[in-house]
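Narrative summary of target 7.
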Amino acid sequence: MTATGSSLIVAPRSISRDLESRISQSIANIMSKHDISKLTTKFVRQTVEKDVHVSLNNHKEVLKRLMHQELRKIRAQKVAKRVVPAPWRLSQRRQSVKTALNYIYRILLSDSAQFEAFSLHAIQFYHDIQIVENGDIQESCVLYARLLSSIWLKSERLNDFRWDPDSVPSPEQVVELIRSVFTLERVGLSHMYRSALLAFFDKNPPAFSSMHYLGWSPSLGPPSSSDPEKSIYDQVAQAILLTFFAHALNISIGCTTTQIFQYIPDFYPYKSHTELSISEYRSQFHLIYLVVMVVTDFGALRCDQEILPHEYHYLRSQIPWLIVRQDFALLGEAVRSLNCFPGTDHRDLVRRASAMLLTSQQEDGSWKSVNENDMRETYHTTISALTALIQPRWTGFAPSIPELTPLLETNLSAIIESITKNKNALRPSKYVSSPVRNKTRPTGGFGPHPKQISLDARLSHDTRSNKANSLKRTNSDSSSSNSSKSVQNTPSSIPDQELLEDLDKQVKSLQCMLIDAGEVKDISSSLALHVLKTLSGMTLNVEVLKSTGLGRTISKLKKHKDGEVSRSAQILIKKWKKDFFEA
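Modeled conformation, tokenized:
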């Protein structure tokens, strides 16, 4: 008999593994039902004996070991919960996503013109979402993708499409067929012209080159920037997408995705909204989004920041401005791209953007576009916004195309090497903001400056110019020591001029953030504090303040209704006065 009076089946001399697991399970049940701090060894032993019908009088050490084992499990679970917090407003976001998914499906079925224009895009979109989602959202995406695919296969567009094996099709027909075959294969369906397409590309020599498909040849150089119909960003974006499709189908259109990616560094540093027109800015932004999507297989792969450092930090820098403008299409693309990167550096920005998207969704599940009467813009805005609300999950590691790895590593190595070579040449003067010290983006960004990118944001393209400057300095030194000293002592030397220009652009961009938000005294407190914090880490001179009018703008913030913003503005102005007087 035990102390509690219950009958025993056995009093073993040793504890087997099976019996030990039963005892551990009993201990776990006890700890889940009682306050652990008030449990005693005697109480646990008596309860376990009653549960497993085994006497533990001679096995108290085993009991204590198993109790400590369960305690360690409980503590590890608590630590894991602290390390990996619960997703932010997950249930609310999932409900918003389901409403938007239903909206997309409804508008495609209700309007034949919409279906003809966006059906293939929607099929691929539903497929990409179901890869990283689970539960009812995944089931809905699979169902919608299959239904739309079946309707598309029976549509008039496919019935009117004719592929004559005896004649040569046009390049436009080939491109359209590549896209449709790729999309249907993503959802596991077969295209009736798939074999004809593969046979067409097996011909030797090929009927068309990359010039016919893209309008430019990557082997000869970048696309022309003088095309009135398409910007250079649009041409590169379309080339990336088409070569990605061709790579997935194992066919060649005369060039590869790697060849297109070699021209991406030509766009570094990416330009802010103050340096481009609205259309060019949106084209550039979509190109950046497409680069991230192709490298991550449309969000399914985890992409470290070192793989795409320029894209990551540029997207971070643009989110505050997009929130002020309430541009839901670009904001959704930025958030979806940032969700492909690990880490918590961008978590607060993503949450701010997600909160705006949640509160801006309309009753029918859509988001308002820039042009409300344009269904094409409404469709793409809704697609971009809902993908931003999806909880990121990864099935592997980027890049999706292994051949891109050497090129991406080469770009990163060139950036680091350029930093080392140009560290002394780009050292700022006394009154110029130091990018290393302030960690601010030189082209008007708002996020921290990437250490891997550059000290001047032009390091990926300034190798030739730095060599030329070094040659000029060498010739100057050899010709006359006095002239070289005069060049070194001149405050308007070339590195300083470049930094001053970048500093002026950066300050104007920050000032534009405050002005675009409306009345300076009534803007968002978080935005104002962000700008003030960024400015406080910069070393400005009187010329910059006079040329930009920044001082007057910050003075208005002293009258802000938020006391913290008002105090921060006063402290910043005092800091500037102190620095100028000491100088």
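The first strand starts at residue 301 and ends at 302.
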